[in-house]
Amino acid sequence: MTPLISVCIPAYNRQQFLKPLLDSVLAQDFTDYEIVICEDKSPQREEIRQVLQTNYAGDARIKAFYNEVNLGYDANFRELLTRASGRYCFFMGNDDLMAAGALSRVARAVTAYDNVGLILRSYDWFATDPLRPEQTVRYFDEDRIFSPGPQTIATAYRRCGVLSGYVIHREKAMSFATNEFDGYLYYQMYLAACVLTEMRAYYIHDVLTHSRSTEAPDFGNSSREKKVFTPGRYTPEARIHMVTGMVKIAGAVDERTGVRFAHSVRQDIANYVYPYISDQLNLPPPAYLKLYHALGALGLKKHRMFTVHFLLGYLLKERGYNVVTKFIRTRLGRSPQIGDVYAGEKA
């Protein structure tokens, strides 16, 4: 029988985190699911295979696939959707953990309301102990249901950037499949925008996933990523490329569907640009100014908060800036008028 949920894991290196991740899924108080793993031809392929064979051999819930070539983040995301069979796909980062009761919470939401295409969720960051998070990210004070349309897309778009806990209606997502935006690392944003032109979003206030804050990015190995990304860090060029992708994808979906939301997306990115510059604050002033102008040229500079963030970053540097933005995320990020794009009602 087709499961309600496919837990999808894009595996690339980080074999030491695979067992804790899988155990956090297998410990869920929900049974109508499968686990789909697509290993993307990483240097640790055999170690990953050994983890699965040693600990989970014979477990029919786990389906592992080994890509013949390195597809890269976006194409492997698409591969997981193809390999999965569930009504919904619940994606997990390969070094993160699923919170207790997460699958049950998603199942209740998608069965209580019809035409739900996307789940927005709360999550937290931890360094060593998931029970002692460094920061918890919540967008609203309670569960919310959102109607299809431009305001919902703009609200959800950027908030799909973190992979773990991203839940999408599989069949509807597959109907929009394309490789046009491969290499930007934001295929999930593209799918969210497309799906929400026709389906509703649901926000779950409870924390669904625990994300590790200690691991360096491992992008830059596929043919579409090599020229832009350097494994182990984000360069200024990589950050420009990623934000360019966000704006480009929004504009393309906006134009093709006629659901006008791209302007609100640019405003939202400008208001909350800190994730894309917080790791660039040690740049020499000329390089930092170049980053400011490059991102501003994408239509962000016209929004005041974009410049405010860059000035605060320059003055406070990484540690002080992170303290300020953490305050913004925890105290202001719950406001019903996030970036002036909020559109939802209590669930």
Largest sheet: 11 strands, mixed
Strand content: 15-25%
CATH superfamily of the largest domain: Spore Coat Polysaccharide Biosynthesis Protein SpsA, Chain A
Question: Mean pLDDT, rounded to whole units?
Answer: 93
CATH architecture of the largest domain: Alpha-Beta Complex
Percent range for helical residues? 40-55%
Report the structural category: alpha/beta
Number of E-state strands: 11
Outline: globular
Q: How many discrete structural domains? A: 2
How is the CATH topology of the largest domain named? Answer: Spore Coat Polysaccharide Biosynthesis Protein SpsA, Chain A
Please give the count of helices. Answer: 12
Q: Report, as a whole number of angstroms, the end-to-end distance.
A: 30 Å
Computed Rg? 19 Å
Extract low-pLDDT stretches: 333-341
**Can you identify the CATH class of the largest domain?**
Alpha Beta
Order of helices and strands: EHEHEHEEHEEEHEHHEHHHHHE
Report the oligomer: single chain
